[in-house]
Receptor-like serine/threonine-protein kinase (Panicum virgatum), 796 residues
Amino acid sequence: MAPLLLSLLLLLSSTSLQAQQNITLGSFLVPEGPNRFWLSPSGDFAFGFRAIEGNASTYLLAIWFDKTSDKTVAWYAKSTGADPALLQVSSGSRLQLNSYGALSLQDPTGTEVWNPQVVGAAYAAMLDAGNFVLVAADESTKWESFKHPADTILLSQVLTPGMNLRSRIIPTDYSNGRFLLDLQSIGVFLYTVAVPSGKQYDPYWSMPVNITNVVFNATGVVYITLDNRTQISMTSGVTGSMADYYHRATLDPDGVFRQYRYPKKVSNLSSQAWAVVDFKPPNICEARLTNDGSGICGFNSYCMFNGTNNQSICICPEQYSFIDEERQYKGCKPDFEPQSCDLDEAAAKMQFKLVVMSRVDWPLADYEQYAPITKDQCQQLCLTDCFCAVAVFHDQDNTCWKKKMPLSNGKMGDDVERTLFVKVRKNSTQSELVGSNKWKKDKKYWIIGSSLFLGSSVLINVLLLSVIFFGTYCTITIKEAPSLQSSNKIGLPLKAFTYIELEKATSGFREVLGTGASGIVYKGQLQDDLGTEIAVKKIDKLEHETEKEFSVEVQTIGQTHHKNLVRLLGFCNEGKERLLVYEFMNNGSLNQFLFGDARLEWNLRAQLALGVAKGLLYLHEECSTQIIHCDIKPQNILLDSNFTAKISDFGLAKLLRTNQTQTNTGIRGTRGYVAPEWFKNIGITAKVDVYSFGVILLELICCRRNVELEAAEDKKILTDWANDCYSCGRVDFLVEGDDEALLNLTKVERFVAVALWCLQEDPTIRPTMLKVTQMLDEAAAVPTPPHPSSFISSLP
């Protein structure tokens, strides 16, 4: 009876029904509903319809890791042709293994849009290796996804000459990207590719050997088999048990071929993040030049390699910004009106200046060279030449090069021994800007210099701000409004949205992302060409303090730009409606990852800690107007798709003018993270954020909340327990069960010591965020911290 009952339960299980080895003729899939995919027997992989991020009604035909947190895509179907394009289908489409043994994908009208071009299959199967196959009656394979890779290869997969991998355009867009890994009989080559034509530029990395194939073998090594049957490794492989991890090797959107692993055991992690095992090329910023195209980064930007996390980033020079922040390969544009050739030399010198850059070079785009020449002469020649965008001077041979846009193959490196001078506009007054392209009709983004506010009354400030915000029928009441900076400090101007636009973008404010002291945050999607995902903060109170918070947030965030700060895209100030529009963070808040049943990997936690520290350093010391956040906590630290930490919610920020050092205000913040001075009659400084960071740093180290009343008596308050463990020389107790952290105890001890310095009751003893960042990054020594007085335990 028991076996019969067990069989019935298995039949009723949807997972068991889908995880069948043989998919029979007549079986079908549709994009919506329960019959969307077929699982492999182990449930590790799925084949079927996958909704495209940001577009719920459009689907890929794909294979993905079904047990990873993000259900990582390993393969996706493309159309046939010389340069196969991404295949996307809509609701109402249907994939069927028909009675003729052919797999056919049809759109909602019944038109066939894809098939593997084989017939006579007896059945199909989604294998545990991640390979989807069509199998004949004699058990021979008629078609398999392994022979038609997209951007990824899996364990046991073999590539032969003529096969290739094509990167995505960006992580969330599966269209053909700018990079190609191509296998030829004479070697393995990485090319940049012109989008959308598919033209291949010169290779930027290669292994020129006579090859038979490339294999991702069962030991976790990607190796090349030569035609004499010898093997050479393309990647270094992995350590540890292969059975404990999922594996993949992907040509990523940035042009790097990376091998990844992902722990299978939930007890070892909480974010279930992929970790990089090896990558090629070792430093893509040092890639070979391409005579055509922009190189690794977009035009007018340069590539910087971060050896700490083995990632490359593209950067715009000063007074330049990305044409598209998400699609950075499109390059950078000047945020000023370029020099007119009608200007005489005197006017050019009056309106433009040269910004010095070191360790950066754009090797191509020279159009004139001078030698011998002095550095001053080099600068003057560029400054008075309307074609010159950058001058390059080489001290050793007194040579000067002038370059014009677009600049290509830009890179930053210690081996660059030249000085660059980038031409930008001097700080402009409003009258000088009127004739520039920033004042086009379709973009009325008025930037008023801070000098206009000096000596102005509150009433005049309000009137000016009303004009700034695009003439909408609204006013903003401010008592301590910080001066707006010129556009070259702000970056891209903020957009004024109408309430109707945001109501439509959020589907009537339907999906709540979170709630805060001043309003509710909703998820939305703009009706632009990119379908940009956004987070909309709707302030539903109209008290004076809320009006003030709104004004402060708009001005504060609008003037900040840092990789560790959430970017404000725009606002709505229409009638009684007050809304802020932020970039959407795919991975939500740190809070939801940090305190779950599983555990973020130690290296990722360390990276997040450093990211938050750098964000606070920017707010405290690198802004022209110092910003104290006042409510640093895990809920206000958001994570993007790359798990980069970004500080959010400046609604409680208190702005200080540059000649001020402290301010008095009411208690702000969240219990458990507030500094002791909030409860005393003393001035509040940026050190309150340092204290809060110390609490978060300990939470990142230990993956637990600062206050856990259900814990043992000596562990209820994390700050006290951490101090006890440090004093006894047993910081290993804080990361018990975390194998990765235990292997890095020296770094764990360093981080704990930094946290204890941040938690000193006397704010004058706490380090600045600059010092904190240096200590975390091992750029400064960490002295033994004094015993911090326990304060949190006596809080009401």
Remarks:
- The domain at 431-583 is CATH 3.30.200.20 (Phosphorylase Kinase; domain 1).
- Residues 602-622 form the longest helix (21 residues).
- The chain has 16 helices and 46 strands.
